[in-house]
Amino acid sequence: MKFKYKMNKIISAVVVLMVSVMSYSCDDDSSLSPVVDVMVSEDTDLNINSGLPNDLIIAEGNDLQNIKTVTFKAVSAPEESIVDVVFNPVLNSDLAIMFKVPFDETKGSEFGAQVVTITNKDGAVLTHDFTIIQPEPTIGVFTPERPKANETVSIAGEWFQNVVSVTFGGAPVEYTMVSSTEISMVVPDGTTLGADVTVVTPAGEASAFLDVDIGYNLYLVADFDGGGLRPLNNWVFYGDAGSLEYIIGGPTGTFAEFKWLGDTSNGYNGCQSDALETMVVESDPEKVMYLIDVNCNGAIGTVAEFLIVDRDGGNWAFRHEFTEDGWHTIETPVSAFGASYDPDNQSSGDVDPTQVNQVKVTIAEWGANPSTVQFDNIRFHGFY
């Protein structure tokens, strides 16, 4: 019904406009008393006498022919902050005038209550109350696209007026308002992962994911939750191994638990991932880090050896003795791995990280008996 009412008004306005050209051209407009009964937005489903910037407005009333100017001024703005409206006089009749809601901050536009002033060619003036609604903010691009921790990043967007807060990963961050289309913020110290940046204003909020340059490429081998370059938990155990199980409840979900129960018949044991494609693109063994989350589950004295295997079948080992209980992260450069299964063999050069295609976990059979190694989130960091 509202649409039909408006269309009838518009059609009537056009018809009257044609008549106006003939009947009013010689009349004295000084006798006109322009009146606006209501202003209705055609672009948004808002209440009458309100609209968003650039909404098409139909001002309906009487004696609205030969309008010369339409202006907006925010009630709270200085007297000189008057914004002119550009409108098409062809669409102007005695019953209606159509125009778009202006918004020009350089001329003093503000959101909220407005006084709309309409003046015809003979100086007759009418005023009408109107409210400009602030649109929800939008986020466009970040500059730089992948900032580092402690680096300033620019957030480009629209409708950043009256910002209430800016958060990164849900935590408030300090920010600087550059303009209504730009905010600058500093990526929090210690950030190691990207997160959503959320800008909140009285009109709503906008979020966009900000990737963070952590200084290295992350190569997740396995997290035992279906992620990584070896996502299937199809590890095998061999030699004097006691058991290999996948258990829910580790630092980030499922973890693997490998045990040695004292058997020495083979003189070795271990468990290993499958050997498929290589995993790392950085070639410098000093810059590529091996990381793994581990726990001995109370078996203090367990001696674990972590192996990386290259495409030629070379096994490179790093040793770790558990002196306390609890989950912790082992982090060491690939250059610290010794050749030929021997962590102490540092004289035979280093493995080429770009050739690594398999990882293993073994237990030294001269450590605690029985021994346990719980492990999770095996990954490489390739610094650049």
UniProtKB/TrEMBL annotation:
Domain of life, per lineage: Bacteria
Residues spanning the signal sequence: 1-25
Domain IPT/TIG positions: 137-201
Keywords recorded for this protein, A-Z: Signal
One family name in Pfam for this protein: TIG
Matches recorded under SUPFAM superfamilies: E set domains
Protein name, per record: IPT/TIG domain-containing protein
Source organism: Paralabilibaculum antarcticum
